[in-house]
Design brief:
Layout: E1 6-9, H1 16-30, E2 35-38, H2 50-57, E3 67-69, H3 77-86, E4 98-101, E5 104-106, E6 110-115, E7 118-123, E8 126-127, E9 136-137, H4 139-149, E10 157-160, E11 163-164, E12 186-187, H5 188-197, E13 201-204, E14 211-212, E15 216-217, E16 224-229, E17 242-245, H6 255-259, H7 279-286, H8 292-295, H9 317-322, H10 337-344, H11 349-354, H12 372-376, E18 405-408, E19 412-416, E20 426-430, H13 442-461, E21 464-472, E22 481-487, H14 494-505, E23 510-513, H15 517-527, E24 533-538, E25 543-549, H16 559-567, H17 583-597
Parallel strand pairs: 1-2, 2-3, 3-5, 7-10, 8-9, 10-13, 11-12, 13-16
Antiparallel strand pairs: 1-17, 4-5, 6-7, 14-16, 15-16, 18-19, 19-20, 20-22, 21-22, 21-24, 23-25, 24-25
Length: 604
């Protein structure tokens, strides 16, 4: 069977008429093409373009072929995308796009799907320190892509809106267009993700110029990656905004075909080398006999005083980030367990290695190391983990939304869920900066049990039951236990719908029933392995569902919420970003909850 033929396009910015004129022409001369994938801003820049744009969405004008887009921002985006999320046809697990209208599909959040044999991975929106309903991506989206990176098989296409930071590193300078090396329009998180996912093709927009980089090699992979940055539709410099491609799916290629390289292949642009090295360190490095492929296992030099073991000056990135390295004892870089422990506590890798992080305030990880003494001390309210000034859940963070607080304990606090699935949906959150609730000390577990018992009594008075669930991702930085009330009449159906969802994703839950929640959580603590991600749900009848997530397994970051949304017929609220409220409305909801919860509150 012939490989699929696809078109790739840069920022549309609402210029559909101009785009389709070009698409129809190319389709006649070189087609037919199976689909058009758009990166960068898809919606208009101004309200003046809305009428023409809406004509295609509302069916007054024809869209000539299937279009998939990730640039869910621009004028009118909220109106059209909100309508798409509420469409009954778009409910459930829709990783291959939500239908906006005939031939137009929105690739929402992040995910992976197969198109005519091609493995397509995408990240919609832009990075932002402020969470918005549309147009930005979040920690859950990134975590889902990191999980996808661990899946077996090769990704054919990776679609992002912004370019990866540093993509022009090690490229032929004569081929780099003016402005392409500037930081604007780039995203360091995209650089990290593409280095992990290792796609055969990486397509991005937003930068405003066209750039087809030489192919580059990947660490721990035999295939190369080709980056293509596309210019905006109708740009005044007439740079290329439409690119045709007919890639053979990697799943059908032979080993020899996969390994084929060209003479202009470079090393990965994401192999970072610290430029300020003193002469002594430089001399030492010159005697280390490190190959180009070896150098991709580290990113920055580590100061001598940070070294705990071994003779080298470099940390192995693979070991620190995953806990293992395929090279084992033959690896030229340090397998430092102290650095690995810091990584598990949410410490920024760049900070550990370089002493600073170039992402600064935009980095979602912590920029302070935790001492052994701090990890062994349980005297403070911070528990076993240091606080982060950038974490959404840490009490000391500038980003915490304290108006959501309901009850504050010694080791846990209860808060209204942002974008609640249903009324009275709350979170139980450790005060200490812990990545999960299962590895905290016994005194924390006792207080959590009191919170759970109080909430059960509170919901019982309303003739409701409650489901608790947690996705303890090994990449999480601050845990939250979801608490969702359900009508008593729905309680008998909870276990069945969780099993159906698991079957759909190809796994089976470990199912155990306990007479009380304390025994259930004791069992969960014995099952939990911090080297793996872990999902569990505590059901109203005492049943505990648990699943240890393997390294190569695909798991949805919003799995628990999506299952509950299906049970409660709230599919339009499966994504919290689709149902956020104003601060004023959230404050009213908190006050209402607190007044009704007062008689049950263990901290009142």
């Amino acid at each position: 069977m012939a490989p699929p033929k696809i078109l790739l396009c840069g920022d549309v910015s609402g210029n559909l008429k101009q785009l389709f004129k070009r698409v129809v022409s190319v389709n006649k001369s070189a087609g037919p093409f199976d689909a058009l994938f758009c990166v960068g801003q898809f919606f208009p820049n101004s309200a003046d373009q809305l009428d023409e744009f809406a004509g295609y969405i509302e069916g007054r004008a024809e869209i000539p072929l299937p279009i998939y887009f990730i640039g869910d921002y621009g004028v009118g985006s909220a109106k059209f995308l909100l309508a798409a999320t509420k469409d009954a046809a778009n409910q459930g697990f829709k990783l291959d796009g939500l239908k906006v209208c005939n031939n137009l599909y929105w690739l929402k959040g992040s995910g992976k799907f197969t198109f005519h044999g091609l493995s397509v991975v995408y990240l919609s929106g832009l990075q932002s320190s402020v969470s918005q309903q549309f147009g930005t991506y979040g920690e859950d989206d990134v975590a889902a892509l990191r999980a996808i990176a661990e899946d077996p098989g090769i990704v054919d296409l990776f679609l992002t809106n912004e370019w990866p930071s540093g993509v022009t590193n090690k490229a032929a300078t004569s081929d780099v267009p003016p402005g392409a090396s500037e930081p604007s329009g780039t995203d360091s998180m995209v650089a990290e993700l593409v280095a992990e996912i290792k796609p055969r093709y990486h397509i991005a927009g937003t930068k405003g110029v066209f750039y087809a980089r030489e192919p580059y090699s990947n660490v721990d992979a035999v295939h190369v990656t080709r980056f293509i940055g596309l210019a905006p539709v109708g740009n005044k410099d007439k740079q290329k905004f439409l690119h045709a491609l007919s890639p053979t799916p990697a799943s059908t290629m032979s080993a020899i075909e996969i390994q084929t390289t060209t003479s202009n292949t470079t090393v990965s642009p994401y192999t970072y080398i610290e430029g300020t090295v003193n002469a002594k360190e430089g001399a030492k490095r010159s005697s280390d006999t490190v190959s180009d492929s070896d150098s991709q296992y580290w990113r920055y030099d580590v100061s001598q005083k940070r070294q705990k073991h071994g003779d080298g000056n470099r940390l192995c990135f693979k070991f620190v980030s995953s806990g293992s390295c395929p090279r084992g004892e033959t690896c030229n870089f340090q397998h430092d367990m102290d650095a690995r422990e810091q990584s598990l506590r949410g410490i920024c890798f760049d900070f550990m290695n370089k002493g600073k992080c170039e992402r600064g305030a935009d980095c979602k990880f912590k920029h302070s190391l935790q001492d052994e003494g701090e990890s062994n001390s349980h005297k403070s309210r911070t528990g076993n983990f240091t606080r982060s000034t950038e974490c959404w859940f840490c009490l000391s963070s500038s980003k915490i939304e304290s108006h959501l607080f309901i009850s504050l304990g010694e080791h846990y606090y209860c808060a209204l869920a942002k974008g609640p699935l249903v009324e009275d949906h709350v979170l139980l959150i450790p005060i200490g900066h812990s990545p999960n609730t299962l590895s905290l000390p016994s005194e924390c577990e006792i207080e959590l049990g009191k919170f759970q018992d109080s909430l059960k009594k509170f919901y019982k008075k309303q003739e409701k039951e409650v489901v608790f669930f947690e996705w303890a991702s090994k990449r999480s930085t601050h845990a939250n236990l979801q608490v969702i009330p359900i009508p008593s009449a729905k309680a008998a159906s909870v276990q069945n719908i969780f099993h159906l969802a698991a079957d759909r994703l190809g796994f089976k839950f470990t199912t155990t029933k306990f007479s009380n929640s304390s025994d259930g959580r004791k069992s969960l603590r014995t099952q939990f392995d911090r080297n793996f991600s872990f999902f569990y749900a505590e059901l109203p009848d005492g049943t505990v569902l648990s699943h240890l997530i393997e390294e190569s397994e695909k798991f949805l970051a919003q799995f628990g919420r999506e299952v509950m949304a299906g049970l409660l017929n709230k599919a339009d609220r499966a994504d919290w970003r689709n149902c956020t409220d104003s601060k004023e409305d959230e404050t009213k909801m908190v006050e209402n909850f607190k007044s009704r919860f007062a008689e049950f509150d263990p901290n009142s």
